[in-house]
Amino acid sequence: MVLLTGGLGGARLAPPLARDCAARGGDLTVIANVGDDFDWMGLRVCPDVDSVLYALAGLWDVERGWGRRGDTFGARDVLATLGAAEAWFGVGDADLGLHLARAQLLRRGRPLTDAIDTVRRALGADAARVLPASDEPAETRITLVDGRTLHFQEWYVRERADPRVKQIHIGRASASPSMLEAIGRAGAVVLGPSNPIASIGTILALDGATEAVRQVPLRIAVSPVVNASEPTSAGIRHHARARGALLAATGLEDSPASIARLYADLVNVFVIDRVDRAAEGAVHALGLRVELTDLLDADALSRALADLVAAA
């Protein structure tokens, strides 16, 4: 199975999904969004990739929804004291070590895919393969109603996703060869419960990505929306607010049926939460098979996905 994902959704889903794939004799490859990547203090930061790596290694901060659990922020505090403009981005001290090590590998001419795999193995994140969607920069930028154009991280983190969005500019690049190879040998591909614009959309926009996905026999999309439930953590609440703002800027509702329409020409199965059963008819009308599960329970979602693939 191949999972296309952003950071929060991927970090929650990848560990149980890797376990359930292995229990059924399969394996999982996670392909993470690189639209959030950016250069910070001369280091290439890959927030979505790193969240997945930390989660598979048992190091992810579940409550915060990013970074390493128990990390300290002494270096960031020094930057703030010194008036460094980059202090808005919360790189922890242990996290900084990862960025430094990856930067050294990149300076030595290693492609991003290889650098990330070296980090993955060093962290002991052995349950799944983790690939960046592209080895090339493909940064997402946001034009705001107030006229500014910001990197996605500047809008999402520094500005707390508050300013109204006018337009989203998805970076153009080629899908990594390793990504295309992984999709080509997959029996199933899953569009994870991540932002359909800033996470899944950025992956599918890469040259060769959508065409590769179309060749996979079983193509499943998971709704990132649970309409009748209050998000349980600050990270999930922030993610949901940003998703709604980006969807609104593209003229879409933040609802399961609206996101199903976005994916309808690419997938053949759409997974929604049981509380959103009322959307089942609208999704069926798009020609999609509908599966119901508890999307806020990563273990339940993982079992449902693994069962779908096993039964195919």
Describe the structure.
This protein is of the alpha/beta class and 312 residues long. 42% of the residues lie in helices and 16% in strands. It has helices at residues 7-23, 47-56, 74-81, 93-107, 112-123, 152-158, 177-184, 200-204, 209-214, 234-249, 256-263, 280-284, 298-311; strands at 2-5, 29-32, 38-40, 43-45, 129-132, 141-144, 149-151, 165-169, 188-191, 218-222, 269-273, 289-293. Strands 5-2-1-9-10-11-12 form a seven-stranded parallel sheet, with helices on both faces. A three-stranded antiparallel sheet has the order 7-6-8. A hairpin with a 2-residue loop joins strand 3 and strand 4. Helix 1 (7-23) runs parallel beside helix 2 (47-56) and helix 4 (93-107) packs across helix 5. It is globular, with a radius of gyration of 18 Å. The two termini are 12 Å apart. The model has no long low-confidence stretch (mean pLDDT 95).
Rg calc: 18 Å
Give the rounded overall mean pLDDT.
95
Tell me the strand order in the biggest sheet: 5-2-1-9-10-11-12
Beta fraction: 15-25%
Share of helical residues: 40-55%
- List SSEs in N-to-C order: EHEEEHHHHEEEHEHEHHEHHEHEH
* Record field, number of beta strands: 12
Tally of contiguous helical segments: 13
For the sheet with most strands, the description reads: 7 strands, parallel
What structural category do the secondary elements indicate?
Answer: alpha/beta
Distance between the terminal alpha carbons, to the nearest Å?
12 Å
Shape: globular
Extract low-pLDDT stretches: none
